[in-house]
Target: FAD-dependent monooxygenase
Amino acid sequence: MTDVLISGASVAGPALAWFLRRAGARVTVVERAPGPRDSGYAVDFRGPALDVLAEIGILDEVRSHETRMRGVTMLAPDGSVTGELPASTFAGDLEVPKRALTRILHRVVDAEFLFDDTVTALEQHDDRVTVAFESAPTRDFDLVFGADGVHSAVRRLAFPGTDPIEHLGMSGAGFTTGNLLALDHQGLLQPAPGRAVYAFSADDPAAMTVSLSFATATAELDRADRAAQEAAVRAAFADHPWPQTPRLLAAMTAASDFYFASTCQVHLDSWSTGRVALLGDAGYCAAPTSGMGTSQALVAAATLARCLAEAGSDHAAAFTRYEKELRPYVTDNQHLGRQAVSTFGG
Model:
C-alpha cells in the first residue's frame, strides 16, 4: 500500500486524498490552519469539475448549497447602471459558499489530518521522501504532493531557487459585512481603469461580500500587516466618486474576516521532481480572475489520481502523463485569468 503525504487541505488536497484512498493508499494531509478552513466566500464549478463532484459522490449535496445568484449589475463609478451580466459570468455552472464545499470534502475524506502544522524539509531518496514537520515527528512517505496554494511550502522546498509567481498588476481586499446595499442574490460590479468594486449577497440575506481591487506594481503588500494593507486600499479609493464607497471602507476596518491578496499566476516548466508533485494553485495558479481555480483543483486531483492508478508503481510515468494531459487545460485557464484582469479594472 502506498503511503502518501498531501500538503494543503483546501480543495485540491482533500479531493486528491479521496481519490488516492479509493485506490488503497494511506493518506496523510498536513494543513497550516488549526482546523478545516471556514473562510472564503463563494466558489464555482464549470464543465468537467461537475463530473468530478459526481464521481466523489457529493454533487447533489453540493448543489443543495447553491447560491442561486440572479446576475450582476454593472455600475459606472458614480453609481449609475450601465448594464447587466448573467449569473454564469461569476457563478459558472454551479456556485456554493466555500465553507460548504470545505465541510463536505473533509467529511467524506478518510485520511489522517495534521492541522496547525506544515512541512519544513524534504529529503528525496530513490524509494521514499523523508519529510520533516514543524510539529509532528519526521516521517517517510512514498510520494509527496503539494496542494498548498500560491505560496506553497512544498514547492519552495522541492524546487529551490525558482520564483514561478507572476504578479498580474492587481491586488485587493475582501471581507464580509452587513448587507448595506440591500442586495438579494445579486451582485454589483464597478470596473474602472486601475480599480474595481465588487459586492454581492447570496446565501445569507443579512450579509454582503465586498471586494476592493486596485492596480499594484508588485505583490509586496501580501507580506504586509493588515494596517498597511488597509491603508493601501484606502489610498487607492480615496477619491472614488461612488457615494457608497466610504461606507464600504468603514465596513472593511470593522470586518473580522478581512483578506488581502494579489492577483498572481504560477508558471513552472515541470510540476514534479522525483517523488514530489504539485497540483492546484501550488503548481499552476490561473489567478482568481480566471474563475477556474476550484474547477482546476478538482480536475487536477482526479487526473493525477487516475494517472497514478494507471501507471502502477511507476510514479515518474504517472507524473509525465498527468502533466501532458492537464497542461493544455491549465494554459487555457491562465489565458482566461489574464484576459479578465482588465475587466476588473486592472
Summary: The first helix runs from residue 12 to 22. The mean pLDDT is 92. Residues 168-263 form a domain with the D-Amino Acid Oxidase; Chain A, domain 2 fold (CATH 3.30.9.30). The chain is about 35% helix and 30% strand.
